[in-house]
Amino acid sequence: MSLGSLSQDLGILCYRKMAVDYFLHDKIWFEKYKYDDAERRFYEQMNGPVGAPSRQQSSSTTSSGPAGDQNELLSRISHLEVENQNLRSVVADLQMAIFKLESRLNALEKSSTSHQPSAVPPTQKVEPFSVPSKKVELPAKKAEPAAAEEDEDDDIDLFGSDDEEEDQEAAKVREERLRQYAEKKAKKPGLIAKSSILLDVKPWDDETDMAKMEECVRSIHMDGLVWGASKLVPVGYGIKKLQIQCVVEDEKVGTDILEEEITKFEDYVQSVDIAAFNKI
After folding, report:
1. What is the pLDDT of residue 200?
2. Which of 238, 234, 240, 236 is nearest to 213 (CA)?
3. From start to end of the chain, where are the E strands?
4. How many whole angstroms separate alpha carbon 88 and alpha carbon 110?
5. H or E segment at 28?
6. Could you tell me the CA-to-CA distances from 117 to 82, 108, 112, 124 in Å, in that order?
7. What is the pLDDT of residues 19-67, one digit of tens each?
8. How crowded is the C-beta side of 103, counted as CA atoms within 13 Å?
9. What is the pTM of this model?
10. How are beta strands 225-236 and 271-279 bridged, if at all?
């Protein structure tokens, strides 16, 4: 024997041993039919002769396959026939309901047609333009009484002819009252728009006389200008600026005019700036 055949035989033996070990450990019931037969015989003995016919019948049904199929077909056919009868009865009920509905609809249609107005007989002539002519004539007939009523209203004078001309004395009194009201309204002072302005007046240098500069600024007098509080605010390098407040009437005094008047004092004033501007 060659070495190759020996190795092949060993491989087959190992495979068979592995298969045997697998089937030993695996729980497979190879002889189940024997236990089934023993269980069937036990129950046949327990049931006695009564179970024999059933067993014979079952064995006959199992042995005769076509006969069992035929019985099953017959049972299914009978079941279908019963269902068919039920469906026919349902269809008959539906047909009866539809018939009743149709009869009710016909009755309703007849009643609706009976209540409708009768049509114009063919012998009667209908003139298409007769109705518009009547509609045009009716307003014309009604217009005449309306015009007559308006004339009558014009003729009636509810207040009398003596009241048409106004009394001269009442007219004079009314005119006098209107004149007094106009004068009173003209004298009543209206709302005057005012503004509060905070000005920064800057000198040329630290040697400028700030008291004299403030005196010059306050010497400006205008209608609608009122000077307020003032103070010196340090700027830097010993220089101070004059911060002065004033109230002006917007219609009489403008900021441009006020700046021009202050800058006229060239010996003391270098520039003028508006620090704050608020409406009053």
Report:
1. 94
2. 240
3. 194-202, 225-236, 239-249, 271-279
4. 33
5. none
6. 56, 16, 10, 16
7. 666 666 655 566 677 778 888 888 888 776 444 444 454 444 444 455 6
8. 6
9. 0.35
10. unpaired
